[in-house]
Amino acid sequence: MVQGSAAKPATADIVQESIDPLRFRGALGLFATGVTVVTATHPTAGLIGITANSFSSVSLDPPLVLFSIANKARSLSAFLEAPGFCVNVLRKEQRALSARFARQSQDKWTGVAYTAGRFGAPILPQTMAAFDCLHHAQYEGGDHRIIVGRVVDMEHNVEGEPLLFFGGRYRVLGEEAE
Questions:
Q1: Fewer beta carbons within 10 Å, N or C terminal of the chain?
Q2: Is 175 within the bounds of a domain?
Q3: How many domains does the chain have?
Q4: Are 29 and 162 in contact (CB under 8 A)?
């Protein structure tokens, strides 16, 4: 951009340009993220959980976090109808737990230990952190729904290392950057 010039507003022509979804996904994969399992308890569907790396802090006051879930996800309506949810931030030793909740399966919870949060959402043991949330807001976001929660309780453990996701693969922390 030339110094001193003002950016022109986006036009419909610019907005309609197509970005190849596979290239876009590949580029997004170059942003390293933590790995979470988001859980809830629905009055009729029971325990639900998904693996998500689309987790972010939103606000410190009030304490808000968000995650996004695909509109086609079988558990979307149950997450929206549950009173709250818990975002469990996984440790590097919990890769198998991440894989379990990433697949479409009816038996995700068999043999999984948990305690119930204030709104019944499962809090998984030995995670890096767990954010117990009350639904605050939801937004449409293209092919996903963005769900914002107000954190009402949390646990965290500074010991250990988080499970990371980068370039389509699980990773662990490396050396500290200089």
A1: C
A2: no
A3: 1
A4: no
Residue 96: count of CB within 10 angstroms of its CB: 7
The residue whose two tokens read 């479409």 is 104
CA pair distance 67, 121, nearest whole angstrom: 15
- Strand (E) positions, the chain? 33-34, 36-42, 46-52, 55-59, 64-70, 84-89, 115-116, 122-123, 129-141, 144-156, 164-166, 169-171
Q: Domain range holding 51?
A: 33-163
Q: CATH number, domain at 88?
A: 2.30.110.10
CB 37 within 8 A of CB 97: yes
Residue 7 lies in a domain: no
* pTM for this model (two decimals): 0.88
Q: What does the pLDDT look like over 125-163, one tens digit per residue?
A: 999 999 999 999 999 999 999 999 999 999 999 889 999
In this structure, what are the phi and psi dihedrals at residue 158, rounded to the nearest 5 degrees? -80, -5
Q: Is residue 42 part of a domain?
A: yes
* Strand 84-89 versus strand 36-42 pairing type: antiparallel
User: What is the Cβ-side half-sphere exposure of residue 69, based on CA atoms within 13 angstroms?
Assistant: 24
